[in-house]
């Protein structure tokens, strides 16, 4: 057995919802009181299509009495935002010749002021900035004694020079970093 009472109540409830313009006015216990517009941020509008008269005679929808074709529009904008927008294009105009000339003159004045500031800054500075920087001078340190000869070494050298064919000794010294000198002996 089919329960027709419940389905009949839902039909009556839907009819009440549509007749009140989208407001729920209580359920079976009177607890439901919300609008459909607060539930969903989108607003739904049903607008009948405008169909030419020639098309009305041909279309099968127009033959049925009481039914009109609808088109469905979803809009998520509020009425205040729609009112603030105007459907007309905004008109923009190019600036007049006078404003262009005054703007160019202002730019020229700014450029002159900048050039004068640069010239004043250059004249105040010394020309030492254009010369290449001088190399840093090396710090002079006192030289170390290259060789110290003992009295025995001096006697030996004199003996080498007194031979029939004297032998000469060449001693060279070089700086090697901060550690000291290196010696090179050649006979």
Can you characterise this structure?
This protein is an alpha+beta fold and 187 residues long. It folds into three domains: 81 residues, no CATH class; 27 residues; 36 residues, no CATH class. 40% of the residues lie in helices and 14% in strands. The strands form two sheets. The protein has a two-stranded antiparallel sheet with strand order 1-2. Strand 3 and strand 4 form a beta hairpin. The radius of gyration is 55 Å and the shape is elongated. The chain starts with a helix and ends with a strand.
As laid out across the biggest beta sheet, the strand order is 1-2
Count of separate structural domains: 3
How large a portion of the residues is in β-strands, by DSSP E?
A: 5-15%
Helix content: 40-55%
Poorly predicted segments = 27-37
> Biggest sheet: strands, sense, closure?
2 strands, antiparallel
The total beta strand count reads 4
What's the tally of helices? 7
Q: Rg to the nearest angstrom?
A: 55 Å
User: Which class do the helix and strand fractions yield?
Assistant: alpha+beta
Shape descriptor: elongated
Distance between the termini: 137 Å
SSE string, helices as H and strands as E: HHEHHEHHHEE
Mean pLDDT: 69
InterPro entries: Fe-S_cluster_asmbl/transfer, HesB-like_dom_sf
GO molecular function: 2 iron, 2 sulfur cluster binding
Region (Disordered): 54-89
Protein name: YLL027Wp-like protein
């Amino acid at each position: 057995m089919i329960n027709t009472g419940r389905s009949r109540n839902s039909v009556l409830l839907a009819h009440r919802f549509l007749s009140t313009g989208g407001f729920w006015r209580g359920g079976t216990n009177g607890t439901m009181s919300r609008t459909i517009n607060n539930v969903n941020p989108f607003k739904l509008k049903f607008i009948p299509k405008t169909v030419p008269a020639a098309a009305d005679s041909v279309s099968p929808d127009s033959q049925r009495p009481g039914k009109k074709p609808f088109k469905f529009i979803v809009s998520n904008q509020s009425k205040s935002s729609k009112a603030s927008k105007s459907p007309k294009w905004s008109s923009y105009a190019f600036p007049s010749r006078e404003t262009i000339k005054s703007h160019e003159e202002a730019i020229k004045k700014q450029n002159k002021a900048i050039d004068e500031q640069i010239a004043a800054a250059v004249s105040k500075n010394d020309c030492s900035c254009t010369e290449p920087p001088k190399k840093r001078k090396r710090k002079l340190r006192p030289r170390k004694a290259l060789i110290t000869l003992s009295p025995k070494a001096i006697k030996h050298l004199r003996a080498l020079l007194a031979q029939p064919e004297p032998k000469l000794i060449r001693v060279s010294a070089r700086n090697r970093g901060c550690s000291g000198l290196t010696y090179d002996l050649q006979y």
